[in-house]
Write a structure and sequence with these properties.
Elements (H helix, E strand, L loop, with lengths): L3 H5 L9 H19 L10 H18 L6 H34 L4 H11 L3 H7 L7 H4 L7 H19 L9 H23 L4 H6 L5 H14 L4 H9 L2 H11 L7 H18 L5 H6 L2 H8 L1 H17 L8 H25 L6 H23 L24 E3 L6 E6 L7 H10 L3 E5 L8 H16 L8 E5 L2 H5 L4 H12 L5 E5 L32 E3 H7 L1 H13 L3 E4 L2 H4 L4 E3 L16 H5 L2 H8 L3
Helix pairs in contact: 2-3, 2-16, 2-17, 3-11, 3-14, 4-5, 4-8, 4-17, 4-18, 4-19, 5-6, 5-19, 6-8, 9-11, 11-14, 13-14, 17-18, 21-23
Length: 623
């Protein structure tokens, strides 16, 4: 274990603000608790916003105390230090976790692509392109979702050093501070306005994109510039504003509900700025933040941030997160963070060979290419080879994106089309395709899409356009979509109608599988499917639930209406009523005497789906 003194002796030449590391410790604790259980502190994710402010403050401080004679030396030195600070631990983390997730997820392409994009500082853009909702269940199963914040910071670093240099700040010119303050201030105001405008319209874009997060990091920059001046305003905040009061307000914000995310984000950023200004020696807050153990946690915060999410996400794939698993998960988080810090971060940062920016760039580029090639090989030639679970369970993984299962265009083909609920029946269709000598192509995608247009395009119309010219007489089209889409007034039947209108002259056979019930009492993130790495004793108690059949049908009457309307207009579509088989009595159970029928609140396990095989087979192949 790295000692306190070992950590503190590795400070930069620029002034070391011990209280800033204390603030980092507070932020990472907020984040980790929130990611363990959102009910404990619903807005603990705001710790990331605190990190953004700290990053702006610290990076500006570092540049302020470094004199550069020329632009090339300034830029190469800046990026060299950033690469040494961020890349080694990130490479080690992404490589190891990419291998581990392949053991438990047979189709880890989304996670691997997220990890790969994080190496190049664009995972936030990749996640936005995937229409990811940061607060949805699917993000908790992606071991690299949290790297979006690193992408935001790294994209900020593409712009910021140029502002520093050309403002004169980096050359220590007389008006350099003023010029940087004015230019960054203008961008800060624009970014904040963009964040406020975009958040209600497209929360994911406001959350993930650097331009709408720029203001948070840049406020830290403005804070440092102002920090160097002696003014009545600064003196007021330093002398009159009690830091403990600000700290209590920040802690209180952690219990604000997610629905107030816009205002709470803005408040926590400005409160963080006020806290940094107001902290002074001899105050109780300063003593808390400079306590050796608190500083130690703060210096570990980067490694803790990297590893905590991966450990929790892997836990959701395996034994789950319950009160009895928390000690083990904390041990792993802290252990991997310390190991990464002691044997990766510190050695790479202090290695004499890395003193030259050119050598840092060459070695970092080579390491990035090597790790990238390994990750690509995990997603292509080694795809599914490392998976250690029951291969029969692989078809119902949400959002796995596998499209070609048995592909031989000389044979008639079964096309399974829809969202992640179509993926329920992958194992069933694979079995039937082999039995009746059919090809099988499926195009389900995971949730997280924001509008009916995006959902229709991705789930129904995109595969139609892709395979339209390949459809032939005798091919089978099977539609299946989530009940939630209907509850949100997302009428998939309209897109089914469009699909049929453009393809019904090709002699295709159409089937629509009924929606499955939703078990709302199953907690988000709980996986209810047994595997050797997820034994029955570790499955969350929330997985054992049932729902009143009549009440559920009544609350989803709109769904029934839309389906009946679609079937009346399209008499050639056969309706496969799996719902009646899943709910034969007054109550729908998510498990039977043998095993679970559902892997979460609404996705069938392969066991549950295979119980539908006979009824599906009788409809599709009645003879």
């Amino acid at each position: 274990m790295a000692s306190y003194s070992e950590i503190q002796n590795n400070s930069k030449k620029s002034p070391y603000f011990k209280e800033i590391d204390g603030l980092r410790a507070l932020a990472i604790i907020f984040v980790i608790i929130n990611h363990f259980n959102k009910d404990l502190i619903p807005s603990g994710y705001l710790g990331v916003d605190i990190f953004f402010v700290i990053s702006g403050f610290v990076i500006t401080s570092s540049l302020y105390h470094r004199r550069s004679k020329n632009f090339i030396g300034f830029i190469s030195g800046f990026y060299g230090r950033r690469l040494k600070r961020l890349v080694p631990a990130l490479l080690f983390f992404v490589l190891l976790v990419s291998i581990i997730i392949c053991l438990f997820n047979p189709f880890p392409s989304v996670a691997l692509k997220t990890g790969l994009s994080s190496l190049f500082g664009i995972s936030n853009i990749y996640l936005l392109k995937q229409s990811t909702d940061y607060f949805s269940q699917s993000t908790q199963l992606n071991v690299f979702t949290h790297t979006w914040s690193l992408g935001v910071e790294e994209q900020f670093y593409l712009l910021f050093p140029f502002l520093v240099w050309f403002s004169g700040f980096g050359k220590q010119k007389k008006n350099g501070s003023r010029n940087l303050f004015l230019s960054v201030g203008a961008l800060t105001i624009s970014s904040l306005i963009g964040f406020i405008y975009l958040y209600p319209k497209n929360q994911s874009a406001a959350y993930f994109l650097m331009p709408t997060r720029f203001w948070e990091i840049s406020l830290g920059c403005l804070l440092f510039i102002n920090f160097q001046k002696t003014s009545s305003i600064n003196n007021f905040f330093k002398d009159k504003l009690p830091p403990l009061f600000i700290l209590v307000l920040i802690i209180g914000l952690m219990w604000v509900p997610n629905s107030l995310g816009l205002i709470s984000t803005i408040i926590v950023v400005f409160l963080t700025c006020l806290l940094i200004i107001s902290i002074k020696k001899q105050t109780f807050t300063y003593k808390i933040f400079t306590y050796p153990l608190v500083i130690y946690i703060g210096r570990l915060s980067y490694s803790l941030y990297l590893w905590h999410w991966a450990i929790l996400s892997l836990s959701r794939w395996t034994i789950g997160i319950n009160w009895w698993t928390v000690p083990l998960q904390l041990f792993l988080i802290i252990g991997f963070a310390i190991a990464s810090f002691k044997w990766v971060e510190l050695p790479m940062r202090d290695m004499i060979w890395f003193k030259s920016p050119r050598k840092v760039l060459i070695s970092s580029s080579g390491a990035l290419v090597l790790v990238s090639l390994i990750i690509v090989s995990l997603g292509r030639p080694l795809k599914g080879k490392l998976y250690s679970g029951d291969l029969n369970n692989k078809w119902n993984i949400e959002g796995f994106g596998e499209t070609k299962i048995i592909n031989d265009q000389t044979r008639p083909t079964i096309y399974l089309i829809g969202d992640s609920h179509a993926g329920h029946y992958g194992a069933v269709m694979t079995s039937l395709a082999r039995k009746y000598d059919y090809s099988f192509i499926m195009h389900p995608q995971g949730g997280g899409l924001k509008s009916i247009n995006e959902s229709a395009e991705e789930h129904v119309l995109a595969p139609m356009r892709k395979y339209k010219n390949k459809f032939k007489v005798g091919d089978i089209i099977i539609f299946s979509s989530s009940i939630d889409k209907y509850k949100d007034s997302l009428d998939f039947t309209k897109t089914y109608q469009t699909f049929m209108k453009q393809t019904n002259k090709k002699g295709l056979k159409y089937f629509l599988i009924s929606p499955t019930p939703t078990f709302s009492k199953v907690k988000k993130g709980d996986t209810c499917q047994e595997e050797w790495f997820r034994p029955s004793w570790s499955i969350s108690p929330s997985c054992f639930t049932k729902v009143n059949k009549n009440e559920w049908l009544s609350s989803n009457s709109e769904t029934s209406f839309l389906i009946k309307k679609f079937l009346i207009k399209n008499s050639t579509v056969s309706y496969i009523d799996t719902f009646s088989l899943l709910c034969p009595d007054d109550y729908c159970n998510n498990h039977d005497e043998n095993s679970f029928l559902y892997k979460d609140s609404h996705h069938l396990t392969s066991y549950g789906a295979m119980k539908m095989k006979e009824i599906i087979e009788n409809f599709i192949f009645p003879n």
